[in-house]
Structures are given as structure tokens and as C-alpha cells.
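Model the whole thing, not chain by chain.
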Amino acid sequence: MTLNRRGFFKIGAAGLGGTALCGAATARAASGGMPNLTAPAQPAELHIGCQQGLVPGKTFEERFDFLEASGYDRVEITGGNWEWLAKNADALAAAIKGRKLQFSVTCIGARGNAGMADPVERRAVIDTTKSIIESAAKLKAVGSIMCPARKKIDLPFPELRERLLSEILPEILAHAEKCGACVVLEPLNRTETMFLRLVADGAAICRDAKSPAIGVMGDFWHMTSEETSDMGAFVSAGAYLKHVHIASRKTRKIPGVDGAADNYVDGFKGLKLIGYRGAISIEAGYPKDTTDEQKKKLLAQAATLIRAQWNQA
Ligand code: MG
């Protein structure tokens, strides 16, 4: 008997919707026709973070006191370039000693984040990234954020990806493995780079780099315009996900500033599915003319909002 295309589609549809399921199909359909999901080996934990530069205060201590009192237990290191970080590492370490607060990652760009086709710039990126990772390791942070090919892209994507994997990452990752901190790739949006926009693409680079010292992150701000599904993006990253940035979803301000648009529940569901235990860290601006007192209020409210939506997810 030969099947025409119409017959083939009919049988396919019956197979998908029919009751004659057996074996794995039966197991998958056990819960009202929906797949049964396996819980992650370690359940997810919520750790709310903020970039230190966003917190009003004259000293690291003052900023860290405020964060701890306002529901935060992670702080992201920002403040300048790699030289600033090396200079301030001791003061940062002293300010966090004995606290529940921990450092999450450093968000400090290497000297020239792109330049992958220029050997001189490439060398500078490798050297400064290694220095940043060393400081991150000293501070017991998870690692350092890296945005590859952020500026000018002058190679076709396959060659650029290959160059990143074979000529830039190996030396950095060998150093990172020794130090005990990670490179955390950050996908941006298309106006910043077309090279790495999707969390799943970053995770695929991690897989191909074959090192325990590389991970990817998701930034809700970039994800709002680039991803088709917050949950899907985080699930695609799985164990490669090391960090999350969060901001209001219309104007990139402190979460909550954009009202009902600031919904992260779908993404948080994804984080729970993969047993995520890293930070959800605010990287955002303030509305114009916000006073320090108002900034503190917004940060405290944002922690409450993130916790409430996490519980909802
Ligand atoms: Mg970000």
C-alpha cells in the first residue's frame, strides 16, 4: 500500500493525539498528557544581588550594610577597569569579611572586548581578562563577565567563533581553572553585538570550550528583546548558567519601576527547573533625579518584588 501525503499526515495526527501510547510515551504522558519533569538534584536557591556601584554610600562597608539590611546576599563587583579592581581587591575583601553577603561576579570589561581579528588587541583582551579573573578568585567570586565581540565585528561568524574557541579562550580558561574562577559569557542585544545574543548560543560555546571554568549568563534586559522564552533560555543553559542580571523590562531601571511589565516569573520557573543557585543581580539605572534616599527605597522594593515573584514561580 502506498500512502499519499494526506494519508501520512492523518496517521501522524492520530499517533500524536491517540490513546495507544506505550513505553516511554506512556510515562511521559502520565500527568494529564504533559511531560513529567525530573526535579534537579539540588533544588534552586534564591540569591538576590546588586552591582555595588548602584548602591548609595561612601564606602564599600556602608553599601554592604545597606544591602544586607535590605534582603540582598550577593553583591557584584563594579567600579572601574581591571586596574581599579586590582587596586581595590584588598579593600573589597576587608569590607565583606565576616558577612553573609558574598561576591557574585566581577562586571568589569577587559581592555577591548572585541578585537578578535587584531592580534595586538587579542593579546590585551587575554592578559586583562586573566588579571580580572585572578582578582575574582581572590575575592571568592564565581567569576568574571566577558562579552565577546562587543565592538567591531570584522570576520564572518563561524571564523569569529572558531577564533574565540581556539585562540582566545584556551589560555584564559587554563588560567581560570588554576585560579578557581569562571569566565561568564554574557549575551547582549543586537544593537551591541550580533555575535552573542542568545543564552543558548552562549551555552553552546561553553560546551565546545570543554572547560569547567566557563559559563554563561542571562540578562533579563537583553532577553526581553532577544529571547523567545525566558524559561526556555534558562533551561537551554542548564548547568552552564552561572549568573543572571535583572532590570525593569521597558526602560532598564531598577526592577519594579516599569510596573506590570516587570514580570520575571516565567524566567524564574526556568531557574527553578535547572536548580539554579547563582545570583539574580540588579544591573540597571535609576529614573532621572532620583535622590539617594529614593534609590535605597527602590532597591529595597526590588528585593521584595524579586522574592515575591520567585515564590510565585
Ligand atoms: Mg548585563
